[in-house]
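Archive record:
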Amino acid sequence: MTFQSNLKKYREIAGYSQAKEFAEKIGVPYQTYMGYENRGREPKFSTLIKIADTLHVSIDKLLGYEAHTPDELERTIRDIQGCGFLVFPDNRDQTQAINDRPILIVNESASNRPRPGDQAYTIDAQTLITLSKKINSMALNTYRESKHQLYKLAFDVVQKI
């Protein structure tokens, strides 16, 4: 998400339904604040700190920044492998630094080695981690919905006994 959308989201979560009220709270003219929220303007660092403090969120969250650790990449790769994919560093471009090299993901074949006809995907580590987080969130929601339906069926059966 962008700073603009995060700013509005966290402002509303904090209970400031009106941008004008929030602008007054942080001591910024309403038009200036609306520039942050709607026109892509960026606040001074001191104003950004005021905004984050008032909304009780980190500056990283406001800016939409998430640091990805090597452990996070390793967990993501293990998860993808557990779903039946082969994961390799993409060594076709030797000019990139090792950590910046794209990752090559291949649909698993019977031999556990990529074959010329296998479908392959090349993706950078940060995008891979971001996609994994989104997929895990969607899977968790689907799991909860399925579990809810199973409980409902079980409760219906118990009620009939």
The two ends are 50 Å apart (CA to CA). Confidence is low (pLDDT under 50) at residues 92-101.
